[in-house]
Amino acid sequence: MDMLMFQLQRTDSTPLYKQLYSEIKHAIISGKISVGAKLPSKRKLAEFLDISQTTVELSYSQLVAEGFIESRARKGFYALPVEELAYLDVQQDEPQAAAAPVEYTFDFNPAKIDTQSFPFSTWRKIAKEVLDEMNHGLLLSGHPQGDESLRREISRYLFASRGVLCDTDQIIIGSGTEQLMPLLIRLLDKQVLFGFENPGYALTHSIFDHYDRKAVPVTVEEDGISVAELEALNVDIAYVTPSHQFPTGAVLSATKRAQLLNWAAAAPQRFIIEDDYDSEFRYTSRPIPALQSMDRSGRVIYLSTFSKSLMPSLRIAYMVLPKSLLRAYQQTFLHYSSSVPRIDQQLVAEFMEHGHFSRHLNRMRKLYKKKLEHLTAALQEFAPAVKISGEQAGMHIVLTVQTPLTETELVELAKRSKIRVFGLSSYDVRATTAVPPQIVLGFGGLSETEITEGIAKLMECWKIA
Ligand SMILES: Cc1ncc(COP(=O)(O)O)c(C=O)c1O
To answer: Which family does it belong to (predicted)?
Structure first.
């Protein structure tokens, strides 16, 4: 073996034994040292390279440990076959340190919920009951659409609170709207054109994209999605948030509800995907029944989630399919299991069955209403420079700000003051910024005091007196 192939750099900060180890390793991987070849003895190599025998010994031990060479008793060191180890040759980049996340003092993120009022003790008690050794059955796979017990509770709840009329076999439980939407769009014809609200829930836009479906943005007006535009664009399936449009907070007017249902009924391939994500929290008048409850043609696919009403980390949402899509669903997803753990499903079912869910919702509705009142009162002091809209429901509002500043500047100034807010344009596929600028403020995750202090600070950094 030509010992000249090993080049060591004495001025390099890498220790000599590591350099030698690396040289030999690369020579073996690249085939310069062939499989079975005998390596020079430690003494010879040390002499040749003018390094200590210990240095060579350290390199050889490392190579033995990593399986590049083997030591044969009284014979010496031999190269081993390493094809399957060749990937080790890849130079690893130093792992990039992730940018430190901004620590916000006041986070007006609309995705946040109140975490202080969750009934942990009730949840724990039910969890203990569910995790009883006698519940052997829960260890086995359940119904692919979700456990009957949970679907039964959901159907009762939906009928009582949203007017949604459905059989349990129309309900599909999944781990979040984000998991049910892809299922749904795979069920529908590939060629259909989806129309989504703009501005709207960004996740759905990306889902259409990820699944290569044709989808167009449709303008959201003061009273919800433009039905005329749906018609004009030849949309087949409309994704809407009629009870509380995300993010503008617009409520779909009664006229538009009727128009939308008539639009859907007018052609056989048309459907409406109704995302009723935060309808539990309505503050100003009686709850508006879901579109599904008014649908006489079986064209509404109803979707909702426990992310707002219980917690986003639970990852449980549900979908109510019109009967006409059921057979196709069951055939397409015949071999799929439910994506939600049965123990969690059982826990939620029991929580609902024993009345804890409706009690929790009543409590949370009052709590969010109070938070909203605090937010409105805090902002009221700065009117008419700021104007609130979309406050009838949910956990966020939209703020129109009379200012010479742009939306980006408002968001950036807030960030510098450790306040997190979102520009309305960040939910717009065309990133159109309104003049005057509009900001989305979520209030679910902040306490009443934080809301008051946060707004005072926000106005201060925006120089609104
Ligand atoms: C419009 C809309 N739909 C659905 C959801 C909930 O999605 P998931 O069930 O995946 O948590 C949200 C959450 O913020 C939302 O804003």
So the answer is: In the C-terminal section; belongs to the class-I pyridoxal-phosphate-dependent aminotransferase family.
Q: Which residues are within 8 A (CB) of 423 and not within 5 positions of it... i.e. 6 or more apart?
A: 407, 408, 410, 411, 433, 437, 438, 439, 440
Residue 260 token pair: 């939308």
Q: Where are the alpha helices (DSSP H) in 354-388?
A: 356-380
Expressed in angstroms and rounded, the spacing between residue 83 Cα and the centre of ligand 1 is 48
Query: Over the stretch 121-165, which tens digit does the pLDDT of each residue have?
Result: 999 999 999 999 889 999 999 999 999 999 999 999 999 999 999
Tens of pLDDT, residues 209-256: 999 999 999 999 999 999 999 999 999 999 999 999 999 999 999 999
**Which domains, from first to last, does the chain contain?**
3-89 (1.10.10.10), 106-112+361-461 (3.90.1150.10), 120-354 (3.40.640.10)
Identify which of 208, 149, 147 has the alpha carbon closest to the alpha carbon of residue 172. Answer: 147
Q: Rounded to whole angstroms, what are the CA distances from 78 to 40, 42, 69, 252?
A: 9, 12, 5, 77
Ligand 1 centroid from CA 204, angstroms = 9
In the 8-state DSSP scheme, what is residue 428? Answer: -
Looking from the CA of residue 200, the nearest atom of ligand 1 is 1
Give me the mean pLDDT over the 346-354 stretch.
98
CA of 177 to the centre of ligand 1 (A): 6
Instruction: Find the residues whose C-beta lies inside 6 A of ligand 1.
Output: 111, 176-178, 201, 241, 246, 275, 277, 305, 307, 312, 317
Mutate to test the pocket of ligand 1, among 205, 220, 305, 340 (most ligand atoms within 8 A of CB): 305
